[in-house]
Amino acid sequence: MVALNNNTVDAANGGAVLSYIGNYAFKGCKALQSFNIPNSVTTLGKAVFLECTALTAIDYGEQLTTIPEETFSGCSNLSSVTGISGDITKIDNYAFFGCKALAILRGIEPVGNEPIKSIIDTGSSKITFNDFTSLTTIGNYAFKDC
Prior knowledge:
Strand order of the largest sheet: 4-6-8-10
CATH class: Alpha Beta
Low-confidence stretches: 1-8, 107-126
CATH architecture: Alpha-Beta Horseshoe
CATH topology: Leucine-rich repeat, LRR (right-handed beta-alpha superhelix)
Number of helices: 0
C-alpha cells in the first residue's frame, strides 16, 4: 500500500518488495511534495511524476539506471534530486521538461580530485552531473525550460 501522509509518500507493502512503479503512477498529484524511491525499485514507467507541481524533492532509487521519458516533466517546483547512481545510462526525452526550480542533480560525489564530468547550462542555472561515467544518452528536450 502506498499512502500520502503529510504531503510525502510512505510505502507500506506488508512485507512485499516494491520493484516497479508504473506509467503515470502519480501524474497530477498536486499535494505530493517529496518522494523517496526505495532502492528495491528497479524499473520506473513513463511519466511517473508528470505534472506534480508541488513536488520539491526526490530521493532517486540507487538501483535505477535510467530516468524514463517525462518522469519529472511539469514538476515546476522540483529543486532537489538526490540519490542518483553513477550507473545512470540514459536521461530520456522530456525527463525534466519545465523543471524551472531544478538547480543540481546530486549523484555520486567526485572521488579525490576527479573533475565534474559534464555541466549543462540551462540558461537560468546549471545542472551538474558528478561522476556519471556510465551516462551515454541525454534525450531530446530532457532539460527544456529548466
